[in-house]
């Protein structure tokens, strides 16, 4: 059996590297068209590094059925540290241009910021929606402008219009890391995620 050598294509804007016969229709990270991709020269100097990006997420949650103060609705500032591995792009010097990682991750993660994270079966959920409905803000508001991309996975569903995320499992740092990883893994070459919130932290290495 022979070895199949795949071509590699580098996004000239953000440094995203795509492996395949031809460049993708558009960059999954920064959305420029395929014409912005350049074929990577084989051989030469290769440096694989990890690029580290931090994102702050302010959110409210509670642990449903938990015996302790965390059963009450309360807030946190969490910090997600995102470690992405890749080859250094010789033209721009980045693994993935740092703002691109942040911007891309934020498209999804902004849904958790200034948001309430509740479990599906939490009886606060229908009550909260009733209040938002009565105030006319359930379906959005002209001042709710920094909304993210809606998502609906096995673990979580985002309602960007009213800054709500409904989760399947209790929103501990451990479970939230799993939610974040599922949302970001397809477009970022994640090596490690660390989420710190209050006195708690969890990390996950791929
Ligand atoms: Zn790109
Ligand atoms: Zn908490």
UniProtKB/TrEMBL annotation:
Rubredoxin-like domain: residues covered: 6-40
Pfam families: PTPS, RUBY_RBDX
InterPro entries reported in the protein's UniProt record: 6-PTP_synth/QueD (IPR007115), 6-PTP_synth/QueD_sf (IPR038418), Rubredoxin-like_dom (IPR024934), RUBY_RBDX (IPR048574)
Pathway(s) of this molecule: Purine metabolism; 7-cyano-7-deazaguanine biosynthesis
Recorded GO MF terms: 6-carboxytetrahydropterin synthase activity; iron ion binding
Enzyme type, top EC level: lyase
EC numbers for this chain: 4.1.2.50
Catalytic activity: 7,8-dihydroneopterin 3'-triphosphate + H2O = 6-carboxy-5,6,7,8-tetrahydropterin + triphosphate + acetaldehyde + 2 H(+)
Similarity comment: family membership: Belongs to the PTPS family. QueD subfamily.
Annotated protein name in UniProt: 6-carboxy-5,6,7,8-tetrahydropterin synthase
Species of origin: Treponema primitia (strain ATCC BAA-887 / DSM 12427 / ZAS-2)
Organismal lineage: Bacteria, Pseudomonadati, Spirochaetota, Spirochaetia, Spirochaetales
């Amino acid at each position: 059996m022979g070895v199949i050598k795949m071509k590699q294509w580098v996004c000239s804007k953000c440094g995203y590297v795509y492996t395949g016969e031809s460049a993708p229709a558009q960059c999954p990270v920064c959305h420029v068209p395929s014409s912005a991709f350049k074929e990577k020269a084989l051989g030469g100097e290769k440096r694989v590094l990890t690029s580290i990006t931090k994102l702050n997420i302010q959110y409210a949650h509670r642990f449903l059925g938990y015996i302790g103060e965390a059963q009450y609705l309360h807030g946190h500032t969490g910090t997600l540290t995102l470690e992405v591995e890749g080859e250094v792009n010789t033209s721009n010097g980045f693994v993935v241009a740092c703002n691109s990682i942040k911007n891309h991750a934020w498209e999804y993660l902004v849904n958790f910021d200034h948001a309430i994270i509740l479990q599906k079966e939490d009886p606060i959920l229908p009550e909260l929606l009733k209040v938002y409905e009565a105030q006319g803000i359930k379906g959005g508001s002209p001042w709710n402008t920094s909304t993210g991309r809606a998502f609906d996975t096995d673990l979580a569903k985002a309602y960007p219009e009213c800054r709500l995320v409904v989760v399947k499992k209790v929103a501990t740092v451990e479970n939230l890391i799993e939610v974040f990883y599922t949302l970001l893994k397809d477009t970022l070459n994640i090596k490690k995620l660390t989420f710190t919130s209050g006195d708690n932290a969890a990390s996950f290495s791929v």
